[in-house]
């Protein structure tokens, strides 16, 4: 039996080598041929040095990208009167001769990205004057400099989309786009643009999408492109972004100002159409656009009254749905600022310096009874559905916080310093009783479905912390030393679907999970569990992570419950017993995916605690019950053999005893020398 798998393995080992040899031989003979269909030809990455000679007459779509073409001259090019789309990206093109392009009268898309057209830019530019009908031109990554671009565009009157990213532009001279007045999409990203001359975009009445991302712009003080719908200014060095006053509304819908150096929320006076505003990765310390004084870092309470005037800025943002203020330096989040943003759904203020969110909008002193709630009427409530506040220094949310956000469905409060209250302590939320740590109530929040309290240094949670909040997912990970007595999750038995308890250093006594009928996803990785919490066995788990614990085996009850529901299980980093792996067989038989099985090990306790990989069953024998039986059987067999041997001996002995003496006695009787007598 053993020689057969050996031979099979040998064949398997050799097979790839044989196949490779064959494939290599073929590849050397000829590069992969072009893929052809009726009107479409693709010779992508076919190691072509020149234009393919025979092409079907009616071809409309030709892909020659990723080849070695250097020179596009007349002699190489067959007449392709029907060609509409030509992709020559990633070749070595330096020269395109004039009459060549004239032979492609129907060409509307010409892709020339990643070539070397700067080499003969004068001649190449001349050749381009033949492209009167072309609507889309990709000239990205061609080493083009400021003075080269204008020439290329001078005759492209039909051009609608132009890609110039990854060139060497440092400046946009006035008139550069004069030849292409129909441009509606312009990508100038990833250049070195520091300076945009006035009126550069003036001729472009149709311009709707403009990317100036990844350049070196420092200041845009009077943005005036009212026709623009998408403007990408991310990854520049902007400290100021100002709009031109007066004269009708802007059509801008998407404005990406991320990764700049803005110190203040930009003034966006007439941005009535703005839907998506990205201000992440700046240095914004205040939401007050009128505070142009760098020293004025935080909005103070006295300023709240004058804040009313600056609300004019935010007031125009009635269609804003997504606002990203993450990675800035805000210390205070005055929710009144967002009041006019009736459409705001997603707000991120993650990774700022927010401390206690004191969102009272009236002065504190005196007016003891005027708490924040009074300011908020039904119609002033924020429409935000999803809020990200992770990575701040918030110790408590004010008690009216969730009242102001009645539609809130998801909130990420990870990496803060919050302490949840128990369900019976709601009134002390926010302020807390004097001397006590302030706590935040998470119960009775009508629409909240997703809550993260990851990394909040939580240790002790009180009973019914989340009761009457219809949570679907709860993240309590990375709270070292956290204890979850079963009453904590009381109230979530019929709603919770996903629970994260990873990296809490929980031992068996600290993880008491009640019966959660709906739980589908559970992460218990990196804890100190040697037993799975009993309550889990009634959950219809689909995804379970128990990696990095102290489990010797998975219990039978769990398997019986889960083999029908479980789809994936992570289990590496547990001291499983090599000789008790029946559970693993069951899981594999049930088709459960074990993505980290290759990293999992088991310990062989009978052989000086040696570990073995779980994926290949350990080669050492296990002291199992049937081993004993085998010994018995062997012993019995041995006994039988022995007896049989003895019996045989005895029998043989007797026969010898019977047969031998007879002749002797005969001889003795007949006399010894009888033989000699008869023979002689
Ligand atoms: C391009 O190819 C044509 C025809 O083979 C040749 O005459 C011309 O010199 C080449 N141009 C360059 C710049 O190599
Ligand atoms: C802006 O450009 C950057 C860099 O190209 C890109 O990563 C980002 O997704 C763009 N933003 C939008 C809103 O398209
Ligand atoms: C804002 O920009 C940052 C960085 O470019 C990006 O990571 C983030 O996803 C963007 N935010 C939104 C809401 O698109
Ligand atoms: C705030 O603005 C509203 C309307 O814009 C105005 O009626 C009110 O008087 C202002 N309040 C203060 C304190 O300026
Ligand atoms: C805060 O306002 C609410 C609603 O107006 C009110 O019921 C509550 O008593 C107020 N709290 C304090 C401390 O004044
Ligand atoms: C978890 O187990 C490790 C290793 O046995 C131990 O050092 C650590 O103290 C345990 N942590 C807790 C919280 O019990
Ligand atoms: C094997 O491990 C167990 C528990 O970890 C320990 O008690 C025992 O001494 C170890 N045996 C050997 C031979 O190392």
Provide structural commentary:
This protein has 680 residues and is α/β, with parallel strands linked by helices. Helix content is 20%, strand content 14%. It has twelve helices and 31 strands. The chain has a 22-stranded mixed beta sheet, with no helix packed on it. Strand 7 (109-111), helix 3 (121-128) and strand 8 (136-138) form a beta-alpha-beta unit. Helix 3 (121-128) runs parallel beside helix 4. Bound molecules: 2-acetamido-2-deoxy-beta-D-glucopyranose (NAG) (7 copies). One 2-acetamido-2-deoxy-beta-D-glucopyranose (NAG) is lined by residues 305, 308. InterPro entries: Leu-rich_rpt, Leu-rich_rpt_typical-subtyp, LRR_dom_sf, LRR_TM_domain-containing. Keywords: Leucine-rich repeat, Membrane, Repeat, Signal, Transmembrane, Transmembrane helix. The chain crosses the membrane at residues 630-651.
Q: Classify the secondary structure makeup into a structural class.
A: alpha/beta
Low-confidence runs of at least 5 consecutive residues: 1-29, 291-310, 360-375, 425-434, 653-680
Q: What ligand molecules are bound, each kind once?
A: 2-acetamido-2-deoxy-beta-D-glucopyranose
Report the oligomer: single chain
The biggest beta sheet reads: 22 strands, mixed
Q: How much helical structure, as a percent, in the residues?
A: 10-25%
Proportion of residues in extended strands: 5-15%
Radius of gyration (Å): 40 Å
């Amino acid at each position: 039996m053993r020689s057969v798998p050996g031979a099979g393995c040998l064949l398997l080992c050799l097979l790839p080598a044989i196949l490779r040899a064959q494939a290599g031989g073929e590849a050397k003979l000829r590069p992969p041929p072009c893929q052809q269909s009726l009107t479409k030809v693709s010779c992508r990455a076919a190691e072509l040095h020149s234009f393919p000679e025979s092409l079907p007459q009616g071809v409309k779509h030709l892909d020659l990208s990723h080849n070695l073409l250097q020179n596009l001259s007349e002699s190489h090019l067959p007449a392709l009167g029907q060609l509409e789309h030509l992709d020559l990206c990633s070749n070595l093109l330096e020269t395109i001769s004039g009459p060549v392009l004239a032979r492609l009268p129907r060409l509307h898309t010409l892709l020339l990205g990643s070539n070397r057209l700067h080499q003969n830019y004068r001649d190449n530019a001349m050749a381009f004057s033949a492209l009167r009908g072309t609507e889309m031109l990709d000239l990205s990554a061609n080493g083009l400099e400021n003075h080269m671009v204008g020439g290329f565009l001078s005759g492209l009157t039909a051009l609608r989309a132009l890609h110039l990213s990854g060139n060497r532009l440092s400046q946009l001279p006035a008139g550069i786009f004069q030849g292409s007045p129909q441009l509606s999409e312009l990508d100038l990203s990833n250049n070195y643009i520091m300076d945009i001359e006035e009126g550069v975009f003036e001729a472009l009445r149709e311009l709707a999408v403009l990317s100036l991302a990844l350049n070196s712009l420092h200041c845009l003080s009077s943005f005036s492109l009212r026709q623009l719908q998408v403007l990408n200014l991310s990854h520049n060095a902007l400290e100021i972004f100002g709009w031109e006053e007066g004269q009708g509304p802007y059509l801008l819908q998407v404005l990406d100002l991320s990764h700049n150096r803005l110190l203040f929320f930009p003034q966006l006076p007439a941005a009535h159409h703005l839907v998506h505003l990205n201000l992440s990765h700046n240095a914004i310390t205040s939401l007050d656009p009128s505070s142009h004084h760098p020293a004025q870092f935080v909005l103070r309470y006295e300023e709240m009254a004058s804040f009313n005037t600056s609300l004019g800025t935010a007031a125009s943002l009635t269609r804003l749905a997504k606002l990203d203020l993450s990675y800035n330096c805000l210390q205070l989040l005055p929710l009144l600022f967002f009041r006019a943003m009736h459409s705001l759904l997603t707000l991120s203020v993650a990774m700022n310096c927010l401390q206690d969110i004191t969102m009272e909008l009236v002065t504190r002193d005196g007016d003891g009874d005027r708490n924040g709630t009074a300011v908020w009427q039904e119609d002033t409530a924020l429409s935000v559905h999803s809020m990200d506040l992770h990575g701040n220094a918030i110790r408590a949310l004010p008690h009216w916080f969730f009242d102001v956000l009645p539609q809130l469905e998801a909130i990420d409060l990870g990496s803060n310093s919050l302490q949840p209250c128990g369900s019976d302590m709601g009134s002390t939320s926010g302020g807390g009783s004097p001397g006590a740590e302030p706590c935040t109530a998470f119960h009775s929040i009508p629409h909240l479905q997703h809550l993260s309290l990851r990394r909040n240094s939580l240790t002790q949670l009180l009973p019914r912390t989340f009761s009457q909040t219809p949570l679907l997912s709860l993240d309590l990970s990375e709270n070292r030393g956290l204890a979850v007595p079963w009453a904590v999750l009381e109230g979530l038995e019929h709603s919770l679907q996903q629970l994260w308890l990873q990296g809490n250093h929980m031992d068996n006594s600290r993880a008491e999970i009640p019966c959660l009928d709906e739980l589908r996803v559970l992460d218990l990785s990196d804890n100190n569990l040697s037993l799975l919490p009993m309550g889990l066995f009634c959950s219809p788990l689909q995804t379970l992570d128990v990696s990095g614990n102290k489990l010797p085996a998975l219990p039978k009850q769990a398997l019986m419950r889960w083999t029908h529901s479980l789809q994936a299980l992570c289990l590496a980093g547990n001291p499983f017993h090599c000789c008790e792996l029946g559970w693993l067989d069951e899981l594999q038989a049930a088709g459960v995916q074990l993505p980290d099985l290759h990293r999992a090990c088991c310990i062989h306790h009978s052989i000086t605690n040696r570990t073995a990989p779980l994926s290949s069953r350990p080669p050492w024998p296990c002291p199992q019950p049937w081993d004993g039986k085998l010994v018995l059987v062997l012993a019995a067999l041995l006994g039988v053999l022995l007896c049989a041997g003895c019996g045989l001996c005895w029998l043989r002995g007797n026969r010898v005893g019977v047969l031998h003496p007879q002749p002797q006695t005969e001889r003795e009787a007949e006399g010894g020398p009888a033989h000699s007598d008869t023979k002689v």
